[in-house]
Every structure is written in C-alpha cells, then in structure tokens.
Amino acid sequence: MKLLVITCWCGGQPFADMTTAMLSDLQNSITEWGGEMMLSVVRQGVPKGTVLRYTLFEDEVVELESNAGFAVGMNWAFMMGMERLVEGATPDAVLCLNNDILMPNKDWLQILVDELQDDAICCPTTNYTSVTEQRATKPVDKDPFFHGVTPGLCWLMPWPVVEAITGHLGKGKLFAEDLGSRAWGEDNYTAGIVRTKVRKAPFKIVPRAWIHHLGAKTSSLIPAAEKMKAHGEAQRRMKRERFS
Question: What is the pTM of this model?
C-alpha cells in the first residue's frame, strides 16, 4: 500500500518545534507499519529565523509567503504530493494530519490501515475533539464504529473517497478555500461532501488507534470571529447544496 501524507503549519519557533515532534512520531509510525509513504508539507507565513528541524524525510517542503489557512495549505500539500508521483500513479490513500498532534503509540497507523475500506474515512480516537464518541484518553480494545462527522485532525482517506471530494471541489482540492476562514469550517464542508457522495456515516472511528491532540494550538492563531464566520458559512452552503 502507498500513502500520501499531507500536513501544513504556520507560526513561529514553538509551532516549528511542535511540527517537528509530530513528524518524528510519524516516522516511528511509518517504520512500525512498513508500507510505502510520500510526505508533502506546506509551511505558511513562517517568520524569519524560524527553523523546522526537518531531517526525517527527503520529500519537499513547500513554502507560502503568508498564512492562507488550513484549506489552502492542505490543498497545496495534496497537489504538490500528487505532482511528485510517477505520472498516472495514484496513492491507495491520503492521510491528512494536523501538525498539533502526537502519536505515542507507534502501532496506531498500522491499526488504521488494517481497517481501511473504499467507502469510509478512518480516524483514530483522541483526547481533544468536539465529537464525544471519538474522545478517549488511551487506546481501547473495542470494534470500530461509524459516525457522521469528525474533525479533520487525522483522516485516512481511501482513494475512492478522495475522488468523490475532488469531483465536487475540483482537481487538487480536498477542502473549500472560500469559506472566509483560515482554520474552521473547511473540514465540516468536506465531511458534508462525503456524507452526500459516499455514505451517510462515512467516518470509521477506530478505538484501538489513538493519538494525542495538543488542543488546537495552530487554530489558536486565527481570531475567533473569523472561525465562527466560516463555520456558519460552511453550514449555510451545505444547506443550499442539500448536503446530508
């Protein structure tokens, strides 16, 4: 199996160090899994002198001059990752990761990959999430279950789901870039696409896979009013487009 892993980050040195810690844990998880992976990282509006201690992978880091937000950053990471693949090749799945997470249990990725299916986005449980059913303080030996939505902090998306999303948003786009925010609403809108185009409860939450979320640290860089505006726009657009 081949994974394309995408992430983006912004902010000063503390955020660079946080991203480095996430990538270090990811390297351990990839080694534990043993599959093929391509990583694509976008850094946005990073102040001069900020250093990402990034020696774990040889893949390119794309830099944007300003912080254009989560959707733009993740879409750029996706597009650049796809461009570096052999022409005509596609990954089996795309793993979208926030930069403010840690993976203390190295087997979480292997567990998620084992649960992958064509019509669902696999997600681990985590300590910090708006979805009560996804919340946990450690891995739990329970069967996976399906849910209508989860935050986009860690989504393992099989290629048929990726195609459903890009078929709606356009080539190279996994998240809507025009909701009026840089951090909120974009994952809700994408979830609406998947619920409408793929299945009503498309998120497969896997309790045996667990990651630690640092509490939306990157989102804290975005003003609250901007986030709430985008959240409302995402809800209104889903209603207009008759998303489930």
Answer: 0.88
